Structures are given as C-alpha cells and as structure tokens.
Amino acid sequence: MEIWINPACSKCRSALSVLDAEDADYTVRRYLDDVPTEDEIRAVLDRLGLEPWDITRTQEQDAKELGLSDRGAWPRDASARDRWITALAGHPKLIQRPIITADDGTAVVARSEEAVRDALSR
C-alpha cells in the first residue's frame, strides 16, 4: 500500500495516524517532491474509478491561474482528459490528498478515517 501525502496537510497526517495505529504496512510518497508522471496519474485514476477533474483541488491558486473552473476552456469530458492529467502532473498541488493505493489494486481518496479504514480492509 502506498499513500500520496503532503506533510503540511492535516488530512494526510490524520490518515498516517490511522495507518500507524493499525500497524499497517505502507510506503509514503510525498507527491510534491516525487511528482507523479502522467502515466502514474492515469493509473491512479483507473484504480480510483475517477476522472482527473474529480481529484483536482480547484480552489488552489494554481487552479485559478489556469482557469480550471472555466468549463468552456476546461471541459470535463473525454476530449479534455489528457489536458487535465497534464495539468495535474505539471501542478501537483492540484492533486487531492491523501490518496491510498490499496493492496487489491484499487485506490481511495482518504480524506476521512472511514476512507482510510476502507483502504485497509481491501
């Protein structure tokens, strides 16, 4: 199991606390330092069963500067999927966190204790 974190994020620290309390075997990836490639983002999206806009932090300053809330410029459909992935790889702060890749090949956005426990049960 791997968890993508930003150490400054309280949700990430909470997720790590749950994993530690459960004595889970996991690897930490500080995704702002070890930025995921476009292919890694695609793989995580497949595991999550989500689209890139579903894991984009649209309130971040980078998102505002890119105009991600402008659905005309950034449609949320298959034609723009690769463009969104490129934006996430180029601006990793935009990736929702924490993301846990579970041992069964799935993944969860682990923003709650329940989501972390769900990943542990997989």
UniProtKB/TrEMBL annotation:
Keyword Oxidoreductase: yes
Record has Oxidoreductase as a keyword: yes
Classification via SUPFAM superfamilies: Thioredoxin-like
Pfam families (alphabetical): ArsC
Organism superkingdom: Bacteria
Keywords per UniProt: Oxidoreductase
Gene3D superfamilies in the record: Glutaredoxin (3.40.30.10)
Family: Belongs to the ArsC family.
Protein name in UniProt: Arsenate reductase
UniProt source species: Streptomyces alfalfae
